[in-house]
Amino acid sequence: MEHGSRFTVNGKAAGMAISAVERAALRDAVRDLMTRECTEQDVRRVMASGDDYDPGLWARLAGLGAAGMIIDPAYGGMGFGAAELEAVTEETGAALLPSPLISSGVLAAGLLGAAAPDVRERLLPGIADGTTIATVALTGPAGTWEPDGVAVEASADGALTGEAAYVTHGSGADVLLVVARAADGVGVYEIAPGTRGLTRTAEDVFDPTVPLARLAFDAAPARRIAGLGWPEVAGALDLALIALAGEQVGGARRIFEITVDYLKTRIQFGRQIGSFQALKHYAADLLLEVESATSAARHAAAEHAAGSAAAGGAVALAAFTCAEAFHTTAMYAIQMHGGIAFTWEHPAHLFLRRARSGRQMFGGSPQHRERYLTAKGA
Predict the structure, then answer these.
(1) Three-class SS string for the chain?
(2) 0.85 cut: is pTM over it?
(3) pLDDT, tens digit, for every residue of 304-360?
């Protein structure tokens, strides 16, 4: 595969099932791009620029097919499933990639994948090639990511009123999909940026690599997308949770590796600090956290890809396991590095910010635990 070209393996066309070996090749292609063009310095440059992402890097990632991974080949995508999605996001998470991959290529693409053919034909090709950035305004200020958290109302003629919060990449998205309450239940509406009655405001965020926006609607005219309701929203959310779990696993593993390298090279009292018993125990505990989370994320992706009846519970398990493992690993990494990790210049700070922002994204751990217990019949 040439740099910047659409990913192919063994001459197979997009949309065909791929083996574990081929999935590893896809992962390696993304890892190579991240290693070259998404270093810590690159991430900091994007953060300092005030931009949501690096357009050049996004274009090259989309050129590999990442933006259209779960989009049907008929609309310019790769037609891959949750297993390939999770494998790729492990690599982007390890690099702390600032990009609209989950917002546009997963959450919006997953939702639109259930829409009517004319909607898919109109919107999905641009999302697949990365030239269109889409997002979903799903929850209100309560941030529950459940039907009771939807805070936008739709009138009979499609005018939207209310507020949506925590909209990922909401300030600059080209396509806005809004989940709103209508007389016949929850629906999904498309509204053009710049529409009268729509106000987009960037929110203050703890992690500048994950931009959020607040959208306010004052009788803003929108078009309802037929056939999309809460079940389709929930399906897209599951894909987003799998992608997020992959990112969290990748981030946890990377900051753990950075920490272990530090333990091997930092000398105190004439010894490597990694030889100290307390730090050995911490490292062993963190390795268990990372490996357990990795298993949970990959299991959720496999269950989803297989269409298993247990997929919902597996996704919920991965959602809280990976979020908590990433946060725990990042917190202990800072402590094990000592005072240096508390400085803005150290990468551990960036991983902690990403870990904390992800803990509440698409629902918090209590919500996912409750879903998991319900699925298990507890």
Answers:
(1) CCCCCCCCCCCCCCCCCCCHHHHHHHHHHHHHHHHHHCCHHHHHHHHHHCCCCCHHHHHHHHHCCHHHCCCCHHHCCCCCCHHHHHHHHHHHHHCCCCCCHHHHHHHHHHHHCCCCHHHHHHHHHHHHCCCCCEEEECECCCCCCCHHHCCEEECCCCEEEEEEEEEECCCCCCEEEEEEEECCEEEEEEECCCCCCEEEEECCCCCCCCCEEEEEEEEEECEECCCCCHHHHHHHHHHHHHHHHHHHHHHHHHHHHHHHHHHHHCEECCEEHHHCHHHHHHHHHHHHHHHHHHHHHHHHHHHHHCCCCCHHHHHHHHHHHHHHHHHHHHHHHHHHHHHHHHCCCCHHHHHHHHHHHHCCCCCCHHHHHHHHHHHHCC
(2) yes
(3) 999 999 999 999 999 999 999 999 999 998 887 776 666 777 888 899 999 999 998
